[in-house]
Fold each of these.
Amino acid sequence: MRWPKGLDGLCYGGDWNPEQWPEPVWRHDLALMRQAGVNLVTVGVFAWARLEPEPGRFTFDWLDRILDAAYEAGIRVNLATPTASPPPWFSLRHPEALPVTAEGVRLTHGSRDTYCVAAPAYRAAAARVADALARRYASHPALAMWHVHNEYATDCYCDDVAAAFRRWLRDRHGGLSALNAAWGTAFWGQQYHHWDQVLPPRATRYLPNPHQLLDFRRFLSDELRAAFREQRDLLRAAAPDVPITTNAVFGDWVPVDHRDWANDMDLVSLDAYPEGEEAEEQTAFLGDLARHWAGGRSWLLMEQAPGALRHGGAWVRTVPGQMARLSLSHVARGSRGVMFFQWRASAAGAEQFHPAMVPHAGEHAPIFAEVRDLGAMLPRLAEADAGEVSAQVAIAWDAGSWWALRAPHLPSPDVEYLAALRRAHRWLWRSGVTADFADLGVDLSRYRLVLVPSHFLVDDRQAASVRRYVERGGHLVVWYFSGVADANGHVRLGGVPGAFRDVLGVRVQEWRPLPPGGTVALDDGTLATTWCELVELAGAEVVLRYAEGQLADRPAVTRNRYGAGSAWYVSARLADAAYDRVLAAVSAAAGVGPVVAGLPSGVEVVRRADGVHSWLFVLNHTDRAVRVPVTGWELLSDQSVSGVLMVEPDGVAVIRQENDGVDGRAHGRVPGD
Ligand code: GLA
């Protein structure tokens, strides 16, 4: 991963949209940014209509002045290409480049993200504006990084998409007969005899073809990525020394395989918008995921909302201190800085009520004091970037399984991939254990424990890797509806969990999804919901049994010794108490424990370490002062801690330790050393 040019500490700043303001406000903004310790601003994300007011005519003078002024103020620019929001003239001139929904409705301009990524006119116009920016600003001294587009995540079902989808399918499957086989078109007489009969999954009468749905999602990821690459190549050709990123957004609607895309960029960046009461855990989840996308290396938090969280449709102010805590949770997990959307609250427009670093009330509002405090903290923490995040446990992450489990034809609508993943992550987080996400196909031997929630698709490489991991002493937990299908989504015959049958030592004879509200008792007195199975032992021993109905006395949770390791299978959606006991037992067997033993509840600790030092990020998510048993050097207060650290309500601390001993007083490294 490459570091924004000209910055050697952690990045701090946010989206700056000065084109919304008269020039005197720009100067004032820059002065405030200096007060707040801001060193990087994202500029121009939605400025296409201003930059290119009519086709091919560019107006750079205003942007020149912005970049010059930022440079004079000592602030670097993360310069965005504005292609997420084409100007009105574009869609009037190219109505064929407006997106069409699955139901056949063509949308019109009036918001943002309203374009078809496969439309040749859109791609040409996007390349033209990116190229113009590249040529104009490649050697501007303020330029630290290129920010391509904004949150690639759009879909479309038009004829251009149909043509691009067919090209993608030819590449993936070869001929039509291979496509027919991969999509199982023998069922319901769907055989294709000519390529032009193949369409995107537009609205249809009844259940759509699930393999077509899965391939379409994969295609969208690749098509969006191709659009990203076109811009990236232009920017790179003009400025080879300037790193390139695009801000990843996470959500069920996002058809992007971010792990795959990461290979194409210099720095992975994430927009993180946790919602509701569980913001701390969601923040941890997103930060751990971003680190996985970045291949375990550093990444950058590109956007979050300053001082507020979404609750339903509303923005709710966070408690003072929460902004720093959530920000440091990202830094603890590998982010090389903290960026926000946006710097100054807009007076008008669709996001006029979105929280900002400088709110409508101005810089005397309390949020700006928190912004300044955070800006003062970050330079003290830059040295921790030398440390890798230590995790003993991996949770399997698989975009294909996620997408395949969104199809409408499954035996239960309640097998939710993300919910299963989040539950495993939440359990670890609450237990004080840091998690990595991992692809099952990689070498897993560095982990003591690997958790595999509802990993529906498994290819042979992943199955072999899991087998090797357990054989050599690893501990594994697999949840129901895993290993069911191959990469095309075809069921592996002979009984699930197909790909993992041997390692788990069980064969599932039948699925028994439960109706809404249905339960089944287990022999520990808890009630399972949603899902249960008729499991036959094939070498495994029983840990928990079903205790009623047709499944009474049959295995519900099993454990199999396999080589030097152990593999557990959970065939039902367990109640919290049972889930907790199973994971506690596996963790004990695997030797997995909290980062710091004896932590008060509600206190989170993440360790980063290099060969010589550790940095312990301590986040007190409670409203009371806590005592944490650690020794070392606290970077924010610049003081020694011996034995017990007091952390204020909602407070944070970062302790440097010598790996061989205790006091981490001596340290002078900065990132990039
Ligand atoms: C996204 C976008 C921003 C802004 C925020 C609002 O992350 O990138 O432009 O719309 O959402 O939360």
Amino acid sequence: MNNTDVIGLDHLAVYFPDQYLDLTDLAAARNIDAKKYLVGIGIHNAAVAMPSEDVVVLAANAGLKVLQEAGVSPEDVGMLVIGTESAVDKSKPTAAHVHDLLGISTSCRTYDIVHACAGATYGVLAALDWLHNPKNKYALVIASDIARYGKESLGEPTQGAGAVAMLLSRNPRLLSLEELSTYSRQVWDFWKPLDKIYPIVDGLYSTQCYIDAANSCFGALEKINGNSAFIYHTPYPKLVQQVHARIAVMIDEKIDWKQHFVAKVERSCRFSARIGNIYTGSLWLSLASQLEFSLSETTDPTKLKEDLDGCYLFSYGSGCGAALLRGEFRDTWAEMADQLKVEQALSARRRISIEEYEKSIIDYENMSLNDSCPDPTSGQFKLAAIESEKRVYTRIGV
Ligand code: CAA
């Protein structure tokens, strides 16, 4: 195959708030055994967004990072898609703000896609189609979400916030991508009525819908290559163990799924355990986790292809829709993955108290943005004001 026929991820970048809640503090405040959160659900920290940090700010920061690291000019981006289920407007796309903040040219197709946690994946699939036209150069797809379930809800320990920006091109430097199978079914597992600020969730049923979708997507394959990384949408790491226990036996019914999980899945769950669920970005955060740890735990990146023939990427959006993609690591994958540095950013975060976390809930519920709200200390953008119902975004320090 000619290199220009290969389409996929040239690069990806992750951005998340620089403050987090430790779930041992949440467990103590809710009078729950911390092991339920840390082991039963598998999450240790939840990223907490400030009032000045909405999905536009998270997306713009991730988008800026991916373009700068890839050395690609905003002028060369001809398609900008934001996947989000935490949009700040029912009509004006999040992408319109991000397009402006990143200085992308007017000759760009700019829109949002909403399909619960699968929105950005559908954006990636649209970008793969768009790149088949040789006139088109770069597509930027950004997943950006703030997952909030409300104080004392069952979903509270799975909250999180963050964005993942994906730059797609022909002859990509990181990962080629293709769609293998797809799945859709109308279900009421998780939804957000227009007049509600928190989702309605049928928790246990949602996990069953997720597992059914994965069974169907993997079941559609003639053969599953067990020597691959298996990267799943990760609302919380325990669910990924539960789904992989089922998918692994499709590779070989005598497989020791726990051993296979440790070898081919576990690395991809580590960032989610420290950020929480970021809905549309969750699958792609798991890919970043797999790449960063594959790189740091190998002595010879050129040998990755011996350890892993490639990866499967399973995306799930409640409601519900799912897609299974296949990725192959490109020869230059390590140079691109070396720039991720998510672990470094995670270590630099500030741990907030339960009181600060609960104040952030009140700020969100009251939609308060006032002079006492501090600026984010990382990133380049903030929501500075809401004037005459218009959101005003500025560069930090400008
Ligand atoms: N020590 C160790 N483990 C413990 C424990 C303890 N002291 N106490 C409980 N546990 C374990 C339980 O045994 C259980 O493990 P298993 O699943 O292996 O049985 C686990 O902790 C969770 O406990 P519960 O079953 O009591 O669960 P819960 O009622 O607290 O709800 C949840 C858990 C359904 C995930 C809830 O947090 C929720 O509704 N989350 C939001 C919905 C969600 O994330 N759904 C995922 C699929 S939908 C999707 O993927 C889209 C999306 O992103 C939202």
